[in-house]
Structure prediction request, 349 residues.
Amino acid sequence: MLLNKNQKIKQKDELENETAVSELRRDLVSGTWVVIATGRAKRPDDFKKEKREKIKESPRKCPFCNLASPEEIGDTLIYKKSNGDWSLRVIPNKFPAFVHSDDLNEREEGPYNLMDGIGFHEVIITRDHYRQIAQFNIQETAEIIDAYQERYLALMNKKFINYISIFHNHGKESGASVVHPHSQLIAMPVIDPDIARSLLGSANYYQSNRQCVHCEMIGWEMEEKKRIIFENKDFVVFCPFVPRCAFETRIYPKKHKSYFERINNEEKMNLAEALQIALAKIYNGLNDPSYNFFIHTAPCDGQSYGHYHWHLEILPKTSIWAGFELGTGIEISTIRPEDAAEYLRSVKI
Prediction:
């Protein structure tokens, strides 16, 4: 029986998968392990063919499309278009995880330590109900980054604020409860465990090697070129050697910089270009998957973090954690980052 081209490719993949051995890769910063499950790997374009459930919400029922006036709602930041309509607004979260107060109310309960959730929780909303960052132009994306920086600078010296988390959830699987594109900012009195592990790993590497661990990784990626998706004067976008999920993408300043909030105007535009292109390639190449992105930057707690290198991480939702991942904390990726990067490089935007 003669096989057509697709049947031959499928047969070749099946034969390779029978003998393929998965890889365990160790993260240079956190020390955690990740499994690259090459034995059950997918072809990069298989992710684009997957059916994705979309949450539909009419602008007429959207809480962000029908915001009250800035005076009524207490906007902290508003950008205006030339026609007088707003293009971006920052408002307090209606259901905040943290609220402002002058007392942390620290206490003990048996062997446990408690404090009140004191801080700030804000929402950064772009005007268009349907268009997401992947479909923005660079200027529109830069406006979002400008808002991130402005709000960070406005809150970083507030009482009890030691860390500010800036993140964006897109799609049902990401945890986004409102369809309308928006980011969030939470200013809080504690440093979250993920950034704490990153800070500790960075400090330990610097003490042992007298250089930044992230600069070491960036230098290697720039030399190898295998996992790079895009770069400009100030930033490089690549799939990390040890990904936490298929198509994980990171954006790093090329020069060593610890603090996101110190970004200048030229760097802001170049970050906007890098972020928009990275998200556009994920949007087009993977058929608009859900994703989370967040900024990892040095805390604003008054300590020195010169060893740290701030960056932005994008995590597409291409799989669901099951018993192995939950029980061990070891994540499984079904595609090599080298193949993911090669595929994303080829995606037209």
Notes: The CA atoms of residues 94 and 122 lie 9 Å apart. The chain has a mean pLDDT of 88. The chain has two domains: 37-54+204-346, 59-168+177-188. The longest helix spans residues 265-285.
